[in-house]
Amino acid sequence: MALSEVYWDHQIPLPKLAPVQAKVTVALVALLCFINSYDGEFVFDDSEAIVNNKDLKPTTPLNNIWNNDFWGSNLSSNSSHKSYRPLTVLTFRLNYLLAGGLHPVGFHVLNIILHAVISALMIDVFAILIGGLAYDVKGRILNHAPKTSLLAALFFATHPVHTESVAGIVGRADLLCALFFQLSFLTYCKAFNRGSDRDDRFSVQWVVVSLLLCAAAMLCKEQGITVLGVNAAFDVLLICNVNVYELSQRLLLRKIPLDVSEILRMGLLTRLALMGLGGLLMLYARWRIMGTGPPAFTEVDNPASFAENIFLRMVNYNYYYSLNAWLLLCPWWLCFDWSMGCVPLIKSATDWRMVWLLLLWCILIGLISQALCSQDSQRRRTLTLGLVLLVVPFLPACNIFFRVGFVIAERVLYLSSAGYCLLLAYSVGHCCCRWSKYRKLLCVSVLALLCVCVARCALRSHQWRSEQSLFTSALSVCPFNAKVHYNVGKNLADRGNSTAAIAYYREAVRLHPTYVHAMNNLGNILKERNELIEAEQLLSKAVSIQPDFAAAWMNLGIVQNSLQKFEEAEQSYWNAIRFRKKYPDCYYNLGRLYADLNRHVDALNAWRNATVLKPDHSLAWNNMVILLDNTGNLGQAELIGREALRLLPNDHTIMFSLANVLGKLQKYKESEGFFLHALRINPNAASCHGNLAVLYHRWGKLELAKKHYELSLKLDPEAPGTRDNYNMLRRKLDQLKRPTP
C-alpha cells in the first residue's frame, strides 16, 4: 500500500482543505447543482413507479414490496420487467407516509440530499483509490491525495449526466445503489485497519459486512453487485500490490517462476473466495426471485440486440459504448429517452460512425497500456483503479451478459462516472506537473469547467421539473425519436390541447409506423372529435399489429358502437376482455352497448362485473341504478343504490340517482336527504335542483319547489322540462292565492 503523498497532488489548482471542510464543500456544490428541482412534479417513469404503484400506499400489505417488481407488478407476471428493488420502493413508501400522500417535494428533497451525501463520500473513495489505504491511530482514513480526491469529488458532484438520477424520482434506485456501493467498498477497506504490524491480518467480519452492504445495494438496483469486482481489483492491486503487467509477463513467457506464496500469506485467495461465494449466492437468489426467466424486451426497447447477425450486434453495442463515453465527456445533449430512432442502427462496415468505435478503442487501449506498462507505480495504480471504477459498474448495461431494455440510459452512468471523474482529476494533475508554467491557465480552465457543469446541471434539472419542459427539451436532441413526439403529444392532450397533440401523434406514427400506443391515443382523440372513420382505421391497424393490445380493442369497440356497428363492437369488447381478464372499464362499455340494444339483463351483468373488479367504479353503479329505475324495477334500484353508497359514501351522482328512485317510491323524506347531501357536495348541479324541485312539487312543499326550480333555471336556463314544470307550479300558486268566490 502507498503511504506517501501522491507526487502530483500539490500541483492540483485547489486549496488543501481539512477532511470535514472538503466534504461540506462538495455536498454544498452538489446541492447547488440540483436544488432547483426540489419542487418539481412527478415526471415520465415516476407515473408508473410512484403515482400508479399501489405498493406505496399504507393500505397495501408491506409484504407486497418483496413480491413485486419496481413498478408494482408481480414478478411472476409475463409483463414484469423483473427489476427487483424492494429497498428503493420502501423509501418511496416512507416518503408517502411522511408526506401523507403523493406530494413530490419530499421525494425530490431526499434525492437531492442523497446525491450530496454520495458526492461527499466520494472523497474517501477517491482518496483510497488514488493515494492508497492508511489509517491514523483513531481508525480514520488518511488522505494522501487531498486535492486530487477533492477535485474528482467536485467533478462527480457537478456532472450533468447525473440529472436524470437526481431530478427524476425514479433515479432514487441509482442513488441508493451508489450509496450502499460506497459503504460496501469503504467497509471492505475497514477489514485492513490492522491493530498490529503484521501484514497478513484482515477482519473476516468486515468482509462479511461488506457483502451484506453489497446485497443491500443489489436490493436497491441490480448494478450494486458490481462492487464485488471493484473490491477484488482494489485488493489485488492495492492491498497485495500485484503488478498486473509483470504478472502477465511471468505467466505468458514463463521466464521467471511465479511466486504466489506472498499472495497466499496475505489471504487474498480467502477473501476472493468469500466474495465469489457471496456473489454467487446473491445471483442465485436474484435468479430465483426473478422466476428463473429473464425479462422479455422488444425490438423497440433495444434494436441492436435484435440485429440479424452477431457482427452487427457487436458493432452497434460498441457504438452505444462510444455514445455513453461521449455523454461523460460532453454531457450537453441529454435526453430522457434514446430509443425509437434516436440512435439509428449501423448496418454496414462502411457507415461513417464506425470512426467513433475505433476512436473509443484507441483511447481505451492507450489508457490500458499506461495503466499496465507505466514504470510509475502511482500512475499505474490510479489509472488501473480508475478504469475499473469506470468499466465494472457499467457491465450490467453492456448487453454482453443479457439483453437490457434500453439503448442508452443516462442513469446507468451514475456510478461509472466516478471512474471517469477520477481519471479526469488525474489528467489535471498530470498536466499541471508537465506544464507547470501554464498552471494559472489550467486553474482558470478547471474553474470554468466546474462553473459550466454547475450551470448545465441547473438548466437540466429545471427541465426535469415538469413533463412539458422535459419532453419538449428532447425534440432538439432526438428529433427522429417517435417516443419523444408521443410523450409531447400525450402531455399536450392531458392539458387539453388536443389539436396540437394530434400533430405530434401523427409525427410519432410517421417516424415509427408500427407505434401502436401512438395510434391508440390518436384514435381516442379523433373519436372525441367525432372523426370516427379515421379513428376506426387507426385502432384497427393497432390491433392488427399487436393483437393482444386490450386497450386498443376496447377503444375500437367504443368507436364501432358510435358507428352503430354493434356486432363488431361487441366482438371488440370481448377481445379486450380475453387479453385482459380484469378489465372493469371494458365491462362498463360493454354494458353501455347492451343497454343501447335493450339487452337489459346483459347490461346489468356487465356493469356488475365492472363493480366486482373495481368496487369504486362509480359510472357502473350509477348506470345500474338508472337502468333499473327506467325499467320500473324500483325496489332493486334502491338496493343497488344503497349498496353503491356504502362503498362510495360521497358520490353525489349515485345520491342523485337513488334520490330519484326514492321519490318515485314516495319515500320523500329520504329522497330529500339524498338530494340535499348531493347538493352540499356539488351545489351547482342544475339537474339536482330541478329534480329536488319536482320532489317538493309532488310532496306539496310548493314554496321550496319554487325556490329550487328557480335555482335550476339560473344555473341552466335551457334545462329540459324544468321551465314547463316551473310554469305549471306558478299557475298552481296563482290559483291558490286567488280569493275563494
UniProtKB/TrEMBL annotation:
InterPro entries: O-mannosyl-transferase_TMTC, TMTC_DUF1736, TPR-like_helical_dom_sf, TPR_rpt. It comes from the Eukaryota. The chain crosses the membrane at residues 112-135, 201-219, 225-247, 354-373, 385-406, 412-429, 441-459. This is dolichyl-phosphate-mannose--protein mannosyltransferase. It holds the Pfam family TPR_19. TPR repeats lie at residues 482-515, 516-549, 550-583, 584-617, 686-719. One of its GO terms (biological process) is endoplasmic reticulum unfolded protein response. It is a multi-pass membrane protein. One of its GO terms (cellular component) is membrane. Its main location: endoplasmic reticulum. Pathway: Protein modification; protein glycosylation. Its EC number is 2.4.1.109.
